[in-house]
């Protein structure tokens, strides 16, 4: 596998299998020989743990995970890569390849059938275009996972991990902090990929909480309200929530004042606790 950090070797393998990169699938394969071991270590995989990888590419990270985990289940959408992976992972008996779209697969069933009884974490170099949907699907799917360690676009990493109440936060930030403790681990230059993307990346780790840090009466409404608050970032939270959820503006302003903030506040200035209080105040039927 060390040779797969050599661009000439990678191109030789891909050419031999007739593989061409797909822009539509956001294919930028991680080839940096020093980054993959760091990611594999950071995800906490050990001989008692199973790992789900999304988009294994040529299998460089997959191989590193296989050396640490009890089993690795690698989900790959592009069936053209299977012959490549069968070659590069030929000596990895604890790796199972699964063809499918991670956004459509029944991950609870997959974990039960392929990793039943094991502790499970997720580790992946995510295509940029599905970063948020994949992360939100993993967090909101009620999956028995302990952590999510993923490579994402550097700007996305800052937004995902931004604490509610700070300028860079958004609806995803609110959901992430509700479900887990996020950490930006390290940055990765664009030259670590083939082909190199137009931006740099960062590795983040999301440690799932056993209990959320705030209590809400209705989780679905809480997340809907957070999304609505950021739907029109140039407007006040009251205007955005009112327009998106159809709640009378004076009612939203009344709720904002009840939780101790000014009625013309913008969403990025609301802390997680204030989002929870606001959602509980406006929750239908309360």
UniProtKB/TrEMBL annotation:
GO MF entry, a single one: 16S rRNA (adenine(1518)-N(6)/adenine(1519)-N(6))-dimethyltransferase activity
Xref: SUPFAM superfamilies: S-adenosyl-L-methionine-dependent methyltransferases
InterPro entries: KsgA/Erm, rRNA_Ade_diMease-like_C, rRNA_Ade_Mease_Trfase_CS, rRNA_Ade_methylase_Trfase_N, rRNA_adenine_dimethylase, SAM-dependent_MTases_sf
Annotated compartments: Cytoplasm
Cross-referenced SMART domains: rADc
Catalytic activity, EC: 2.1.1.182
UniProtKB keywords: Cytoplasm, Methyltransferase, RNA-binding, rRNA processing, S-adenosyl-L-methionine, Transferase
Boundaries of every Ribosomal RNA adenine methylase transferase N-terminal domain copy: 35-210
Catalytic activity: adenosine(1518)/adenosine(1519) in 16S rRNA + 4 S-adenosyl-L-methionine = N(6)-dimethyladenosine(1518)/N(6)-dimethyladenosine(1519) in 16S rRNA + 4 S-adenosyl-L-homocysteine + 4 H(+)
Top enzyme category: transferase
Family that this chain belongs to: Belongs to the class I-like SAM-binding methyltransferase superfamily. rRNA adenine N(6)-methyltransferase family. RsmA subfamily.
This protein's name: Ribosomal RNA small subunit methyltransferase A
Source organism per UniProt: Neglectibacter timonensis
Annotated gene: rsmA
């Amino acid at each position: 596998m060390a040779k797969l950090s050599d661009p000439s070797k990678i191109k030789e393998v891909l050419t031999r299998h007739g593989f061409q990169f797909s822009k539509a699938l956001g294919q930028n394969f991680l080839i940096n020989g020093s980054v993959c071991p760091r990611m594999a270590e950071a995800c906490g995989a050990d001989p008692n743990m199973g790992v789900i990888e999304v988009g294994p590419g040529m299998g460089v990270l997959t191989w590193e995970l296989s050396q640490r985990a009890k089993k690795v289940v690698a989900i790959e959408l592009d069936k053209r890569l299977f012959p490549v992976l069968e070659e590069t992972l030929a000596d990895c008996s604890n790796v199972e390849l699964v063809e499918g779209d991670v956004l459509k697969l029944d991950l609870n069933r997959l974990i039960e059938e392929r990793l039943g009884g094991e502790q499970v974490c997720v580790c992946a170099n995510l295509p940029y275009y599905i970063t948020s949907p994949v992360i939100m699907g993993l967090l909101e799917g009620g999956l028995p996972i302990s952590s999510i360690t993923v490579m994402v676009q550097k700007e996305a990493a800052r937004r995902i991990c931004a604490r509610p109440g700070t300028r860079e936060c958004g609806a995803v930030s609110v959901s992430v902090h509700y479900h887990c403790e996020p950490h930006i681990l390290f940055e990765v230059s664009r030259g670590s990929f083939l082909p190199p993307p137009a931006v740099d990346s960062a590795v983040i780790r999301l440690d799932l909480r056993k209990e959320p840090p705030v209590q809400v009466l209705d989780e679905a409404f809480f997340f809907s309200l957070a999304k609505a608050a950021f739907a029109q970032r140039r407007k006040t939270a009251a205007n955005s929530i009112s327009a998106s959820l159809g709640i009378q503006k004076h009612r939203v302003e009344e709720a904002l004042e009840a939780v101790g903030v000014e009625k013309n506040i913008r969403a990025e200035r609301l802390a997680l606790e204030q989002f929870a209080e606001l959602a509980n105040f406006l929750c239908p039927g309360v």
